[in-house]
């Protein structure tokens, strides 16, 4: 059973992610992950540690993501152990650009987080991000979110 206080704090982590991304503040985004985060980005590459995570995202937010915004479109939260939760977060991105600066169509995805309570806040310990391929992945294959 999910502790209501934990759930509220973890949902706030999703809001903080959106706020940091949308303001293109990669220091704030990196502050949401643990120093030793294992992060698989949407293209399948591994980012080991907060510094690698921040540097990778700072480079992208200077180019293809510089006008992008993201929005959490639902989240499920399941306890794994005391102060450790599995989170699935559906997201939608708009404003991404290709290499020539042309606007790309909006896209959706799902990111899986393992989050842990590090007093006084929650941090993302591990993540795996996946873009949803419309026309291939239908609603029947989407995890219900609230």
Features:
146 residues, alpha+beta, Nuclear Transport Factor 2, Chain: A, 6-stranded mixed β-sheet, 40% strand
Plain-language structure description:
This protein has 146 residues and is α+β, with helices and mostly antiparallel strands. It has one domain (4-141): Nuclear Transport Factor 2, Chain: A, CATH 3.10.450. The protein is 25% helix and 40% strand. 22% of the residues are buried.
Question: Could you give the topology of this structure?
Answer:
Blueprint: H1 4-22, H2 26-30, E1 33-40, E2 46-48, H3 50-61, E3 69-81, E4 84-94, E5 107-118, E6 121-131
Parallel strand pairs: 1-6
Antiparallel strand pairs: 1-2, 3-4, 4-5, 5-6
Question: Low-confidence spans: pLDDT under 50, at least 5 residues?
Answer: none
What order do the helices and strands follow? HHEEHEEEE
Number of domains: 1
CATH topology annotation = Nuclear Transport Factor 2, Chain: A
Average pLDDT, to the nearest integer? Answer: 94
Global Rg: 15 Å
Helix content: 10-25%
What does this entry show, briefly?
It contains 3 helices and 6 strands. The protein has 146 residues and is α+β, with helices and mostly antiparallel strands. The protein has one domain: Nuclear Transport Factor 2, Chain: A.
């Amino acid at each position: 059973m999910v502790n209501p206080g934990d759930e509220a704090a973890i949902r706030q982590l999703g809001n903080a992610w959106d706020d940091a991304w949308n303001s293109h503040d990669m220091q704030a985004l990196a502050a949401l992950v643990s120093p030793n985060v294992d992060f698989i980005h949407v293209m399948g590459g591994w980012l080991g540690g907060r510094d690698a995570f921040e540097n990778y995202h700072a480079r992208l937010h200077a180019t293809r993501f510089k006008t992008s915004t993201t929005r959490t479109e639902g989240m499920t939260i399941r306890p794994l152990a005391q102060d450790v939760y599995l989170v699935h977060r559906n997201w939608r991105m708009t404003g991404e650009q290709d290499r020539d600066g042309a606007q790309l169509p909006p896209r959706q995805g799902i990111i899986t987080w393992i989050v842990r309570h590090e007093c006084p806040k929650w941090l993302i310990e591990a993540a795996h991000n996946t873009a949803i391929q419309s026309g291939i992945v239908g609603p029947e294959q989407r995890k219900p979110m609230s």
